[in-house]
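Why does this matter for the project? Reviewers at the last site visit asked to see concrete outputs rather than summary tables. In response, this paragraph embeds two records directly. Each consists of the residue sequence and, immediately after it, the corresponding structure tokens. Nothing has been edited or filtered.
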Amino acid sequence: MIDLKKELNERFYNSLEKCNFLNDVNELVNNEGLVNIDLSDFIKLSDGEITGVISDTIDNANDELNINTISDKKPNNCIINISYNTNLKLTDVDIIIHKIKNKYPDISIIFGASITSENKYKIQALFVYKI
């Protein structure tokens, strides 16, 4: 298990803790996926300000995404992982990513995708404003 407190900027780590996203980061960094998200992706953004998170499930890729906003700043970076059962299609991943791009046209997105046994899409996303 990676010690995120040692690896990430202290302020960023505390913000992850405050918005209840530490377990999500641990899960994303430590679990294998079809497309993996690495600790380096989080380290790269750890000098930024967290502006929102998604840690939710949706029934299908066309459902609305509810971003838990924690800052008024407009995010310019997003790390997102989409998990679904063995029927996960890249077109569904693309639909979900385009929803974020429609809301934040200038955002840079790092994405991961993984297979679960669930019949709902599990969305884990971190929105960051970084200078």
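We now turn to the second protein, recorded in exactly the same manner.
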Amino acid sequence: MEQNSSDFTRKLLLWGGPIVGAHFLVVLWHLVLVLKVQPGFPRLAIPLLIPVNLLPIAGLIAFAEGYHKLGGILIIVPLGIALVIGVNEHFLSPGTDNVFHMPSGDLRLPFQASAVVLALLEGLGCWVCFRIFTQPTDTRRDLYAN
């Protein structure tokens, strides 16, 4: 039995929706923890980070409307950038926000958990986007079709 494009789209939406939605909620949780763990974190960054993290939700809506490549771009760019920055800041670089070198405290475990969950969700979101870009699309509704 051959799988058609709408079945594939529905499956990607069933995977992508919870991933993107959970990512946004975990980002909010993580930002609250960052403000508490890193008192010097610029508070002005929060109003800028929230709209950037809404882009994957907009991408999921665009994908659902049939604009597959646009939707994929709106998902993979912010998630990919966040994945690279998050892995570097929270797992590779030395510092107080490295999950392996954090000082003891009440917020250590929640911060570590939020960093790990974010990395997993961002990796899964990038995987979903890879699937979006490799999916055969109906070119009538795709913005970037040749």
